[in-house]
């Protein structure tokens, strides 16, 4: 039972015990449901891709995924609002891509990054999709990434982000 339901139950029981009329009990139940529904559709800040404030050394061949973010939780849709990629290269380029749960590229967001790239946007990730940085051409360098935004519930059957995340196992 959620905290909202528990509090609503306690209030309803107290009001009923004190002889209040049914209209007040129903009004409190409706208010409780409204608060719970509003909480379900609120946007939640989310970090889609990051290197924890560190710049990491990378090397590889074209097509290698070098930084992969968490999946957009089941029952949620994500809107990426800030893109920040820093790539100091000794050769090669990287690109910011959207991948599915099997790490297959489904869309290219920014290609041929050889230095700093940042911006804002409203790129949308669906359930199970995630951001990644991959090598566009073979090479090596130092990379730092931070991409953030918000997620919003699209499926109100799943009650929390934690429960949504526990339903998906990602690698």
Number of strands: 7
Distance between the termini: 31 Å
The fraction of residues in strands falls at over 45%
- Rg calc: 22 Å
Per CATH, the architecture of the largest domain is Sandwich
Parts with pLDDT < 50 across at least 5 consecutive residues: none
- Largest sheet composition: 7 strands, antiparallel
Shape: rod-shaped
Mean pLDDT, nearest integer?
79
| Number of separate helices | 3
How many domains? The number is: 2
CATH topology category name of the largest domain: Jelly Rolls
Helix % is: 10-25%
The CATH top-level class label of the largest domain: Mainly Beta
Explained architecture:
The structure is a single chain. The protein has 171 residues and is of the alpha+beta class. The protein has two domains: 3-41; 43-166, Jelly Rolls (Sandwich). The chain is 24% helix and 49% strand. The protein contains three helices and seven strands; from the N terminus they run ααβββββββα. The chain has helices spanning 3-17, 22-41, 161-166; strands at 43-50, 56-60, 65-68, 76-99, 105-113, 116-125, 130-153. Strands 1, 2, 3, 4, 5, 6 and 7 form a seven-stranded antiparallel β-sheet that branches. Helix 1 (3-17) packs antiparallel against helix 2 (22-41). The longest helix is centred in the N-terminal third of the chain and has 20 residues, at 22-41. The protein is rod-shaped and about 75 Å long. The model has no long low-confidence stretch (mean pLDDT 79).
């Amino acid at each position: 039972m959620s905290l909202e339901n528990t509090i609503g139950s306690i209030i309803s029981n107290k009001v009923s015990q004190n002889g209040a009329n049914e209209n007040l009990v129903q009004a409190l139940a409706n208010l409780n449901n409204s608060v719970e529904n509003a909480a379900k559709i609120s946007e939640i800040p989310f970090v889609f891709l990051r290197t924890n404030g560190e710049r990491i050394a990378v090397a590889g061949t074209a097509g290698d995924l070098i930084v992969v973010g968490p999946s957009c939780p089941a029952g949620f849709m994500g809107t990426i609002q800030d893109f920040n990629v820093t790539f100091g290269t000794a050769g090669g380029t990287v690109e910011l891509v959207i991948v599915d749960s099997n790490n297959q590229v489904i869309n290219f967001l920014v290609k041929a990054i050889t230095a700093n790239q940042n911006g804002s946007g409203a790129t949308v990730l669906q359930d199970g999709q995630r951001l990644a940085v991959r090598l566009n051409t073979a090479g090596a360098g130092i990379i730092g990434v931070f991409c953030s935004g918000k997620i919003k519930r699209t499926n109100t059957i799943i009650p929390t982000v934690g429960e949504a995340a526990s339903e998906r196992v990602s690698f």
